Recover the amino acids of this structure.
């Protein structure tokens, strides 16, 4: 235990492990086995850690608290990302346009606005998406699946974003504050749209005529 010895070796990739339990979990990466099933929505997981994290979506448990504003999160990674809203840190910079991002996932999504890449295709209708998560959410329009349940009223949702936004109706929380005028908003998306009234930014461009708009809804109406 204390010698650093790793007696459990994976024959598939050569990686070694100190504990038999960790080794067993690793093997599921190769086999695709998912033995941990959520009793609420039926989703399955390869390890107990991922299973427990997922269950917090249904229970509403948020054990990770921000000491700056007292907002709570279900996962430590979400708290880490949130802390950057206080520090203003944006370590991910686009070499194409110079725009910077707090989160790697947002940066990756932004890059696809330059490339137009949509590698994830729905086998049901042929529609393509730039992100796997968007494809997964879209597929629920075909299956009717709504795995995310509101703990207040029981209403169900197809995606976590709609679920989280709906719950704010019950709590009345407005965590997203404009530093320019002090107005607060329920979601980060609504805050970003509002901030464009101060900056004049119009990031959504019509490919037909070149005219730019501050919101996607206005662009779609224009088209």
């Amino acid at each position: 235990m204390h010698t650093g010895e790793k007696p459990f070796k994976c024959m598939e990739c050569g990686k070694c492990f100190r504990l038999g339990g960790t080794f067993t979990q690793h093997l599921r990466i190769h086999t695709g086995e998912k033995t941990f099933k959520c009793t609420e929505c039926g989703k399955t997981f390869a390890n107990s850690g991922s299973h427990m994290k997922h269950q917090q979506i249904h229970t509403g448990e948020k054990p990770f608290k921000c000491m700056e504003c007292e907002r709570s999160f279900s996962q430590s990674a979400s708290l880490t990302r949130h802390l950057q809203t206080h520090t203003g840190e944006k370590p991910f910079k686009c070499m194409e346009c110079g725009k910077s991002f707090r989160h790697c996932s947002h940066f990756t999504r932004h890059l696809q606005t330059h490339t137009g890449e949509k590698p994830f295709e729905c086998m049901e209708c042929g529609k393509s998406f730039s992100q796997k998560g968007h494809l997964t959410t879209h597929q629920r329009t075909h299956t009717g699946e709504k795995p995310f349940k509101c703990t207040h009223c029981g209403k169900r949702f197809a995606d976590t974003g709609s679920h989280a936004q709906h719950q704010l109706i019950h709590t009345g929380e407005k965590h997203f504050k404009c530093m320019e005028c002090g107005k607060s908003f329920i979601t980060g998306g609504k805050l970003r749209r509002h901030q464009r009234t101060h900056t004049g930014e119009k990031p959504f461009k019509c490919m037909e005529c070149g005219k730019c708009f501050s919101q996607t809804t206005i662009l779609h109406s224009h088209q």
